[in-house]
Amino acid sequence: MESYGQKLTDSWRIALFALLFTAGIVFLAVALHRVQVERFSALSRDQLRQSVRRVQVPGPRGRIFDRNGVCLADNRASYCIAYYVEELRKRGRWINTIRAVDADVDRLAAALGIPRQISFAAISNHVLQSLPMPLLAWRDVDQETLARWAETVDPFPGVDVYVQPERIYPQGAIAAHVLGYVGRDRPLPLPGQKIHFYLPEMIGKQGIERQYNPVLTGTSGGRLIRVDARGYKHAVWEGEPSVAGADVHLTLDIKVQRALEKALRGWRGAGVVLDPRNGEVLALASAPAFDPNEFVPIMTPGVWKRLNDDPELPLFNRAVLGRYAPGSTFKPVTAIAALRHGISAEMTHACDGVFRLGTMRLRCWNTYGHGEIAMRKAIEQSCNAFFCHLGHSIGYDPIYEEAHRLGLGTPTGIDLPSEGGGLLPTGAWKEKQMRDAWRPGDTCQISIGQGLLLTTPLQMALLTSVFANGGTVYRPHLVRRTGLPEARNTMAWPPEAIALVRGGMHDVAERGTGRRVRVRGTAVAAKTGTAEVDVGGARRKNTWVTAFAPFEQPTAAVAIVVENGESGGLTVAPMVHDVLVSVFGEAPPESEPTADAVAPDPEVRGD
What we know:
Shape: elongated
CATH topology of the largest domain: Beta-lactamase
Number of strands: 22
Largest sheet: 5 strands, mixed
Structural class: alpha+beta
Helix content: 25-40%
CATH class of the largest domain: Alpha Beta
């Protein structure tokens, strides 16, 4: 029989064991609670981060309008046939799913009666890199194909219509070299956010589209996609909304732009129309041109090759990048330089048809000579002998200084991404580039706009606008601005000097080589020019006309150059006339035309 003390000891041991067991249970319960409850939210957040992907969605691109509100660049809905690959997934390796999608594309192409657009490599790249995103198998699908797709959709799971915005240029090729074009690229990343996928964004590649891309580009929004361990999409949540880009309003007048492009049709050349009061560009064209709609939805290799290999260079913007000897359109610069340098307006030169300088002989267009001729008449008649004599008398420095202050030799600063500066040579330039000294013959040639001097059509339009407004060099611009126009320079010409040069240009239009620019009801001033150049060993003419109107208070200045024309007066003057009519209109004839009035003009010579 156990003693009382032994029973007490056993009871104590049982109680201690029970206490320890209970404490262990409590400890395990607390630990389990900590794992299951306290860390649950953290584990859930980690898991969510691992399975949720952020997609960057670009905002709609801003539109482009002319000065009167005519839309030049807009957005439209482009319908695509897209595959959602998660619905075609196959067990095993990725290649199984890729092959399944590829085979399905072939089947759907046959069912719709359309060629496939997407390659096996593109499918593979999409599955491996952008799996949760829609795979665009056909882009920019027409309504007829969409109707056929709607009838055949049932046997093709995982296929749907996907709508994405595309750029459209409602006026076609009009103002193509101004507007430029867009491509698709990765958008700029959202600050402070990790982006896993993105929808391609329209990016400006040339022209206004590129120059004002930061303005036109919208603000991207976001979208969240829930994916499984292999990357297949399971759910989509909308995130931050995207915001459209700003619209851009140009200084272009579509009516004037159309007239300029129509005048240049069928030629290689370029033209610019400026408002001499503020530097606004009313029209700017290069011929031949291209249709920027060919660049959307994507630029195909075939289209790119055709445009790049075209010997007519339709992608090249001759208006701002072309370099041409200005010919006699430069003579007003020589005249104003001489007048500022102290040459009298009454100074005359006896033109016998040839200007002689040492062994050099430079012929005037009038082989019989103009006789004794003064400056204003020399501008009207475009007398080479007079201006060679003038240049030789004052030397090159005054001519260079005047031309440089007018903006020749440097870009004008127009708001386009690419612009050339032409060439306003110096003795140092010739020594470095040609290993030859400056000679009096160089000065003579530049005095009449030939030789080493090269200008862009935009520079010549700007120069003409300065003669039109009396001496202010405004920066040309294509986007409308508020406030005062930006003046780059003020020429401070003596009033009598600019009056003489402007008067001579008025005479050119009234009775000289530029009379075909005349517009009934509007007084015009003009200067014609023809420069002979060597192209591949063959002689070719670049033909010019510069003009401004109305004569007393000008609101338009024009420069047009045509490659391989007959002469400025014959080839280009009628073009300038048509452009000026688009600006000012034309008064009806005062009476019925007589036989003399309808007879063709005598040959226009003297550029």
